[in-house]
Write a structure and sequence with these properties.
single chain, mainly alpha, disordered N terminus
């Protein structure tokens, strides 16, 4: 047997070489030691495994790190993609809202102009027919406005109902004209009754009590109309069925456009304050300054009141839904007293919601007229030195 020390060479330390030499002499003298082969192999494997690193673990450790990093990158990419999608959708929604609002404003403005011009045209035509009667001028004006309002109340719903399904999906020029006519029809009705209120105020001699009483009466009538179940069903039928609703439902739903008359009545009451100062001093600069102060105060007041009324309206609407659910879930065995309470509470909530809607709409028109009066005071009174738009002539009004 070759020497263990020789095989180990200089790789073993001195103490190990001495132990190897002693073991070699013992083996030569007494034979190999009584060590089981299996135990010896296990000892060798344990020594080998402790000396040699685990290449499998070494190879898989970087792969686990890369997998974790890849998963993190995928999650970040997913979040980024979702954020970009939400931002794009929000930008598109804002753009569509802006376009819809601008389109609605333009249509409403043009419809208002069309309603005003149409009302004036029919007013002068009817006046020509009433001239041979020889009645008082203010009474004649009121009757002319009233006749046109009655005709508009009959013809506008009929035209609106007959044109409801005409070329609704077409893109031709004629279809666009039909669409514009349908937009203007509600303003024909609204402007006609607004002129009736104006003529009634002129006939009454600009009395403050009559103006307040008229504003309260028109507002109360609007609240009653919007509280009626018939009106709510008619308006819901127009939204859901489109052109399949009846003519009667169109006529009932058209009453909801009287908010313009309500707003004009209350604007007449509120605008008496700046007009009182205008009668004291008619200097153009003073008129413009008073009108600007009135506009600022009314704008602040309307914004605060409208915000408060909208919050109140949401609260009442929620209470109305709760009463409706309680009424549906009513147990007949518990008696009808609770059912009557829920029914009365639901009707009261409907009246409050309708009243708040009418007041908010009226405040919108009051703000619009205050803004219009401020622009007129700047252009006609201050820049052109006229008392009113009608006193400046057609050329200045055209400019």
């Amino acid at each position: 047997m070759a020497s263990l020390a020789a095989r180990s060479g200089g790789m073993l330390p001195r103490r190990s070489q001495t132990s190897a030499a002693s073991l070699e002499r013992a083996i030569d003298e007494d034979g190999p030691p009584a060590v089981a082969p299996a135990a010896f192999d296990a000892s060798r494997r344990s020594q080998t495994s402790s000396a040699i690193p685990d290449h499998h673990c070494v190879e898989h450790a970087p792969e686990d790190a890369y997998s974790a990093e890849l998963a993190e990158l995928k999650e970040s990419h997913k979040k980024l993609k979702q954020a970009v999608r939400l931002r794009v959708h929000k930008a598109m929604a804002d753009h569509n809202t802006h376009v819809a609002t601008s389109k609605k404003f333009a249509e409403t403005s043009l419809g208002t102009i069309a309603g005003w011009i149409t009302a004036q045209t029919f007013y002068f035509i009817i006046l020509r027919g009433l001239d041979p009667l020889g009645i008082d001028r203010l009474l004649e004006s009121f009757l002319a406005r009233l006749i046109y309002a009655v005709l508009a109340s009959i013809l506008v719903p009929v035209l609106d109902w007959s044109l409801s399904n005409k070329m609704s999906d077409s893109e031709h020029f004629l279809a666009d004209q039909v669409h514009l006519v349908k937009i203007c029809l509600p303003m024909f009705f609204a402007w006609a009754w607004k002129d009736v209120i104006s003529a009634a105020f002129a006939l009454a001699g600009e009395s403050l009590l009559i103006q307040i009483a008229t504003a309260l009466a028109v507002t109360s009538a609007m609240v009653v109309v919007e509280t009626l179940p018939t009106f709510r069903r008619a308006r819901q039928a127009m939204k859901e069925r489109g052109g399949s609703d009846s003519l009667f439902e169109r006529m009932v739903a058209m009453l909801g456009n009287l908010a313009l008359a309500v707003g004009f009545a209350w604007n007449t009451v509120f605008s008496r304050v700046p007009k009182h100062f205008f009668s004291l001093v008619k200097a153009p600069m003073f008129v413009f300054m008073v009108q600007v102060v009135y506009y600022v105060l009314m704008t602040t007041f309307i914004i605060l009141i409208a915000m408060r009324l909208r919050a109140w309206k949401r609260q009442r609407h929620q209470e109305k839904q709760e009463h409706a659910e309680a009424e549906k879930a009513h147990d007949p065995e518990r008696g009808y007293s609770q059912l009557v309470v829920h029914r009365v509470s639901s009707i009261a909530a409907d009246a409050e919601v309708a009243g708040l809607s009418v007041v908010i709409s009226a405040l919108h028109f009051v703000y619009a007229w205050a803004q219009l009066d401020t622009v007129n005071a700047l252009f006609f009174n201050y820049l052109l030195g006229c008392d009113s738009a009608g006193a400046c002539g057609y050329r200045n009004n055209f400019y």
